[in-house]
Amino acid sequence: MEEWIFRVTAVAFPAILAITLHEAAHGFVAWRLGDDTAYRLGRVTFNPLRHIDPLGTVVLPALMYFTTGFVFGWAKPVPVNFGRLNHPRRDMVWVALAGPGTNFLLAVASAVLWGLVDPQNGVAEAWLRAMSEVSILVNVILMVFNLIPLPPLDGGRVAVGVLPNMLAYPLSRVEPYGMLILMGAFFLLPMLGRQIGMDLSVMHWVLGPPVDAVIGFIQTLTGND
Questions:
Q1: Which of 6, 20, 122, 146 could form a disulfide bond with 154, CB atoms 3.0-4.6 angstroms apart?
Q2: What's the rounded Cα separation, in Å, for the pair 161 and 168?
Q3: By the 8 A CB rule, do 10 and 62 touch?
Q4: For residues 161 and 172, what is the distance between their CA atoms, to the nearest angstrom?
Q5: Residue closest to 92 by CA, chosen among 170, 159, 167, 149
Q6: Residue boundaries of the structural domains of the chain
Q7: Is residue 25 over pLDDT 70?
Q8: For the chain, what is the mean pLDDT?
Q9: Minimal CA–CA distance to 81: which of 91, 72, 71?
Q10: Considering 2, 3, 23, 133, which one is annotated as catalytic?
Q11: Do residues 75 and 19 make contact, with C-beta atoms less than 8 angstroms apart?
């Protein structure tokens, strides 16, 4: 039981922080750039309890981590009225980048913590080491995943904000179907592949190399390589 609690908390805490602070960052930057929608709803806060979706923030990430090693989840989306931003198209890019940027900073902080603790010094430091390892992985995966240039992901909003109109407009029209496309590519295709004896693990092809590259960069940046 103690080992189970150790493992679950070492995964749950960093996963919840990664997902909820990602959303809080969107609301904070939108507020600073002219849209107070999230602020008026009490969502511009780094208190994870204000952003948690029980299924998407707690149950699903933990289940996926222990069964697949991959972490996927969501928090309650922070509402942003892009039309109220000071410069809607430009500021939409900064609002979108705030979430992945927060995940990157959390991963760097976790790597620093990883280098400061020694798991041989007792259970507390062993737990901090385990939690920091999970935090690095979770935050980098969330950052890379959300930077995929497909609306409604953050990378899609960035692409819509920086591409010329002739490309941005048709890309923006994909948004209602974006999550269905991702679910099909990341989950349904691998299931189909197993049935026909082919490796269709699109998730690993798309996320694996950049996740490894970012983790390697963070390790070098923090002196842990």
A1: 146
A2: 7
A3: no
A4: 10
A5: 159
A6: 2-221
A7: yes
A8: 87
A9: 91
A10: 23
A11: yes
pLDDT for 47-106, tens place per residue? 877 887 877 777 776 676 666 556 666 778 888 998 999 999 999 999 999 999 999 999
Report the C-alpha gap between 46 and 76 in whole angstroms: 13
CA atoms within 13 A on the CB side of 133: 14
- Cβ-contact 10, 71 below 8 angstroms: no
Q: How many CB atoms lie within 10 A of CB 66?
A: 11
Report CA torsion sign: 141, 142, 145, 147: negative
Q: Angle 39-44-48 (CA atoms, 0-180°, nearest 5)?
A: 145
Structural tokens at position 62: 């933990």
Phi, psi of 7 (to 5 degrees): -70, -45
In angstroms, how far is CA 150 from the centroid of its own chain? 15
Crossing angle of helices 123-146 and 202-221, rounded to 10°:
120
The answer to whether the beta carbons of residues 88 and 34 sit under 8 Å apart is no
Cα–Cα distance measured from residue 213 to residue 142, given in angstroms and rounded to the nearest whole number: 14
Closest CA to 103 of 147, 149, 68: 147
Active site residue 23: yes
